[in-house]
Design a protein that fits this description.
With 246 residues, this protein is α/β, with parallel strands linked by helices. The chain has a single domain, classed as Alpha-Beta Complex (Spore Coat Polysaccharide Biosynthesis Protein SpsA, Chain A), CATH 3.90.550.10. It has eight helices and nine strands. The strands form two sheets. It has a seven-stranded mixed sheet, with helices on both faces. α1 packs parallel to α2. The longest helix is centred in the C-terminal third of the chain and has 20 residues.
Length: 246
């Protein structure tokens, strides 16, 4: 089996200098052949140079540079579609989710899941460093908005940046999606349910990153717009006419 992990990055030169060696060293101990694809989302701070500096010592590290910033969803999509591995996943550059959960995700796929979602909302999940109160309140409000507008059933933490897929499933889903910003997770998961793929959730240990790029006012409005766009596209049949046959 082969495994690829996609790391979207926008102006992450400093952070990647710390986190990439940790991720690469962790993967070296795994039994399968592993690759890491960093997708530079049109950065202006030398993110690509930080990745290139590590590449001579790590043949399993690849860099995919986008000509202009597309958003996290666009960067993840580019990396996922570039992968040809049996299993492909994505995680954030800050490694907020413990790397120990990679093994859990792969195990769930081996047991028959098509998509594995890391969730901070399950009873046995553990938050090492919590978000500030205003962000927790904002997250609750946003979860309610997604429920009303139309979210994925039984996935209370659809936006955790830790998801793994069977390779063929990842291609089928990401080649069909259009949302480039924060709501790309929801679009992917709704499409996975629509196409009758089997979803599994795993509890995760998660550490809040105080340097979050999310801006509550502007990005919440964009999220609501993208949620409406997703719902409109499903209503218009842009994702196909029928669910995939299992």
């Amino acid at each position: 089996m082969t495994l690829t992990i996609v790391v979207p990055a926008y102006n992450e030169a400093t952070r990647l200098g710390r986190s990439l060696p940790v991720l690469l060293n962790h993967l070296q101990a795994r039994p399968e052949a592993c690759r890491v694809v960093v997708v530079d989302d049109g950065s202006t701070d030398g993110t690509a140079d930080a990745v290139r500096a590590l590449m001579p010592a790590h043949s399993e590290l690849d860099l995919l540079s986008l000509a202009r910033q597309q958003g996290k969803g666009g960067a993840v999509r580019a990396g996922m579609l570039a992968s040809q591995s049996d299993v492909v996943g994505f995680m954030d550059a800050d490694l907020s989710t413990s790397l120990d959960h990679i093994d859990q995700a792969v195990t769930e796929l081996e047991r028959g899941a098509d998509v594995v979602i890391g969730s901070r909302a399950l009873p046995t999940s553990h938050t090492v460093t919590a978000q500030p109160a205003y962000r927790r309140i904002g997250a609750r409000v946003f979860r309610e908005i997604t429920r009303v507008i139309g979210a994925v059933p039984n996935t209370p933490d659809a936006q955790c940046g830790f998801k793994f897929f069977r390779g063929a499933v990842a291609y089928d889903l990401f080649v069909s999606t259009v949302v480039n910003r924060w709501m790309f997770d929801l679009e992917i998961l709704r499409l996975a349910v629509y196409r009758n793929y089997k979803l599994a959730q795993i509890p995760v240990e998660w550490t809040n990153d105080p340097d979050s790029r999310l801006r509550l006012t502007v990005d919440t409005l964009r999220m609501i717009r993208d949620l409406a766009r997703i719902r409109w596209r499903f209503w218009r049949g842009h994702y196909g006419d029928s669910a995939r046959t299992p």
